Amino acid sequence: MDNKRELMNITLVGSIVVGFFVMVLLYMRGENFRKELDRTKALYNKVSRETQYLTNVVLELAKEEQRILYEKFTRFQKRGSPNVELLKFTGLLIEAYEVVISETTVGQRTVHEAFKEYANHNTNIGFEAFNNYLIQTSSKKRQYWAKNTLHDYIELCKVMLEELEQN
Fold first, then answer.
1. 97-118 as b/e, with b when 16 or more CB fall inside 10 Å?
2. Number of structural domains in the chain
3. Range of the domain at 110
4. CB 103 within 8 A of CB 109
5. How confident is the model at residue 1 (pLDDT cuts 50, 70, 90)?
6. What is the pLDDT of residues 86-113, one digit of tens each?
7. CA trace torsion 134, 157, 88, 127 (10° rounding)
C-alpha cells in the first residue's frame, strides 16, 4: 500500500511539475507573441505615417501642377480659340485635376469614377457631354482616356493644352 501511495505521490508531483512547465512555456510563448504584436503595431504605425506623408506630398504636387496647367489654360482662354468645345472640356479636365488625383490616391476610386462624379456634381457640363466629345475626337485622346490611369489622365490634360496652343 505504501508503494501505491508513493507512486501516486510521485505521479501527482510529476503532473504538477509538468503542468508548471507547460504554464511557463505557454507564458513565454504568449510574451513572445505580445512582443511580436508590439513590433508589428510599431511597423504598421510607421508605414501608416509614411503613407500619409507621401499622400500629402502627392496631393501638394498635384495642386501645384494643377495651378501651372490652369495658368497655361487661362492664357489660352483669354486669347480665345476657334474650337470652343476643346476649350470647354480642357477647362473641365484641369478643373477636376486635383479632385481626380486625390480621389484616386486616397479615395480608392478609378480616374473615370472620380472624374464622372466631379463632372456631374460640380459643373453644368456633365460626364456624358465630355464622353461624347471624346468619342468624336482624336484616337490619341481616346487612348489616354481609355487607360484609366493617373498618368494617362495627366497626359490627356497636356495633350489637350498642346492642341489649344496649336489653334
1. bbbbbbbbbeeebebbebbbbb
2. 1
3. 2-166
4. yes
5. low
6. 889 999 999 999 889 888 887 788 999 9
7. 50
What is the pTM for the complete model shown? 0.68
What's residue 28's pLDDT? 92
Distance of alpha carbon 125 from alpha carbon 36, whole angstroms: 54
**Residue with grid cell 456624358, as numbered in its chain:** 128
Rounded CA-CA distance 165/159 in Å is 10
Instruction: Please count the other Cβ atoms lying within 10 Å of the Cβ belonging to residue 120.
Output: 13
Give the residue carrying C-alpha cell 505521490.
Answer: 9
| pLDDT tens digit sequence for 38-63 | 999 999 999 999 988 988 888 888 88
- Report the C-alpha gap between 154 and 158 in whole angstroms: 6
- Which of 73, 86, 76 is CA-nearest to residue 136? 86
CA distance 20 to 12: 12
Closest CA to 87 of 99, 96, 78: 78
Length, in residues, of the chain: 167
Task: Decide: 144 and 152 in contact? Cβ < 8 Å.
Answer: yes
